[in-house]
Hints:
Blueprint: E1 2-6, H1 10-18, E2 23-27, H2 31-39, E3 45-46, E4 55-60, H3 67-74, E5 78-84, H4 90-99, E6 104-108, E7 120-127, H5 130-141, E8 145-148, H6 151-175, H7 188-199, H8 203-212, H9 216-228, H10 231-241
Parallel strand pairs: 1-2, 1-4, 2-3, 4-5, 5-6, 7-8
Antiparallel strand pairs: 6-7
Helix pairs in contact: 3-4, 6-7, 6-9
Amino acid sequence: MQLLVVGAGEMGRWFAGHCGADAVAFADRDPETARAAAAGFEGARGVSLDTDERFDVVCLAVPISATPAAIETHAERARGAVVDVSGEMRNAVDALRAHAAGRERASFHPLFSASNAPGNVPCVTVSAGPTIGRLRSALEAAGNDVFETDADTHDDAMETVQATAHTAVLAYALAADDVDPRFHTALSGPLSELVEGLTGNTPSVYAEIQERFEGSAAVAEAAARLADADGDAFVELYEEAGE
């Protein structure tokens, strides 16, 4: 199986290493990034974004906002299947339907950074077939739990598990003072670890998530309700949070 990965960053490299491809090519708007990615795989190579080669599978591993246009541009380079790992599914799936007709199509979302793999991988299969089946089997063999969903369910969930969660953790980081670690509690210690894990990644990735999915405003509203609550109101909110 010959694979072209468009977007030679962390997730593109992760997909290339775990999808069962026999030969890999990387393309990126920065040719040096593509060459560097290829250097990490035996027999892999970098190719230009406007290559006229065709591949069994084309995987789009570009930012959320760039995914629909990338699918439109690069789907024609796929003989068998077009997939993406962008993390947003409504627009990605619409683009797969519109621009990759006649090919197997699926949208995968690894719910982890490459350094934390393996993990859960929701998938929307637009058009099934043996190539998509082979990709799923390889990802599962690498220890991932690949499960089928639909675009609306996925994107609605991302509002909570990504946009809301990221906002809450970053808000804690911005509000908290530095303290002697010996003072940390069973709650503040893990929160500080979450801050370290979140802020050690690429900020533009998180900015794209915040722009695409709602959730931050709800965190701000909930924090304001807590901050303004008197004793009785706080107890009610505390109990509401535990329901």
